[in-house]
Amino acid sequence: MIAALDATPLTLTSGGLARYVTELSLALAREFPEDRYALLSDREFSLPAAAPPNLFRGESGHDKRWWLRGVRKAIAGVKAQLFHGTNFEVPYLGRTPSILTIHDLSPWRDPAWHADADRVRQRTPWLIRLRRARMILTVSEAVRGEIVNHFGASPDHVRAVPLAAADFFRPCPVRAAEKPYFLYVGTLEPRKNIAALVDAWRETRTETGAELRIAGRTRADFVHVPSEESVTYLGEVADSQLPELISGALAFVYPTRYEGFGLPVLEAMQCGCPVITSQDPAVVEVAGGAALHAGSAREIADAMRTVASNTELRRDLRERGLARSALFSWERTARATRALYEEVLAGCGS
Fold first, then answer.
1. Domain ranges of the chain
2. β pairing state of 55-57 and 211-215
3. C-alpha angle 299-289-150 in degrees, rounded to nearest 5
4. Burial label, 2 (beta-carbon count in 10 A; 0-12, 13-18, 19+)
5. Of residues 58, 270, 295, 75, the one with CA closest to residue 185
6. What gap in Å lies between CA 45 and CA 277, rounded to an integer?
7. Under CATH, which architecture does the 2-164+329-347 domain have?
């Protein structure tokens, strides 16, 4: 099989979209060495590190009408039998069958969460209505139900394939910190509810004696909470440093308002860190009973107090998180994704 994947998410320096394309393409190439996987984009991107020979960059160019014309030329250039749109987009025309990944419905749930997503809001429904994608792939059963209901898509043509934490997320020895700390890692953007996290930390800081560390790429539309003592914005943290940072936290706090999957929650669990997260359905699905769930700033504060004061609870959350995260792997994700590729090609008579 020769498949082409949209590599545009690899132009991002961090975050779930870049992680998805990186880990999925690597796992596909390694699990199926007889296949060839081409990464295509009209923008500059870096090939994932340690890519095997059957994962390669296609000659994409910089066509201003990429999704109308340029991508079809790139697909033909690598002789791909199938195209996988990894983030809301597939070619507008052409005979090559496509699979479309819709990670979540955040562009439609609240326009303020994605002020620059007008193109996605306008074009993705059109692509679905005209069946430009033979199959819609999403990352949780919660979002699968949303897609069926919101777009009127046939349930048979929407499949959920869960993600996984990369292998380098694992418990590691940590140096004793001068002070304990709570941690958030993720893109800083409106729907992540960072203001509620800071409010909860303020309410508990005297009792817990803990600092708050916030790490991740800052999106242009994020409104910073004013800096103050014992709140540290770390910016983007290198992958090599994340396991130690996460492993050393009292708890990983991820108070997101809405997710398609909530990959940082699984990454924290795989590092053996207790997790406090929201009551969003997708995050609840992924956590699988291995995290504490809180909605309001007051509830988050209560959970932070409880975790900080209860060593036995932290140990229990650690063990449950490790057991839960062990159920996911990128190898399983790759095998399930390729099975969808085969199903689509079989349906086309390929």
1. 2-164+329-347, 181-325
2. unpaired
3. 80
4. middle
5. 270
6. 32
7. 3-Layer(aba) Sandwich (3.40)
> In angstroms, rounded to a whole number, what is the distance separating the alpha carbons of residues 34 and 13?
30
Confirm whether 2-164+329-347 and 181-325 share one CATH topology: yes
* Angstrom distance (rounded) from CA 266 to CA 264: 5
Give which of 103, 110, 133, 314 is closest to 208, Cα–Cα: 314
- Residues pairing with 211 in the sheet: 181
| 339-344 own/partner pairs: CB under 8 Å, 24+ apart | 340/99, 340/135, 340/137, 340/159, 340/161, 341/1, 341/3, 341/82, 341/84, 341/99, 342/1, 343/135, 344/82, 344/97, 344/99, 344/134, 344/135
Give me the residue label for tokens 């390729």. Answer: 338
Residues of the chain with pLDDT under 70: 61, 63, 177, 349-350
- Beta pairing partners, 254: 277
CB 273 within 8 A of CB 292: no
Report domain 181-325's class.
alpha beta
pTM over 0.85: yes
Give yes or no for a contact between 217 and 189, defined as CB atoms under 8 angstroms apart: no
β-pair type (36-40, 55-57)? parallel
Give residue-wise pLDDT tens across range 98-157. Answer: 999 999 999 998 888 877 778 888 888 888 888 899 999 999 999 999 999 999 999 999
For 193: left if phi > 0, alpha if psi spans -120 to 50, otherwise beta; the answer is left
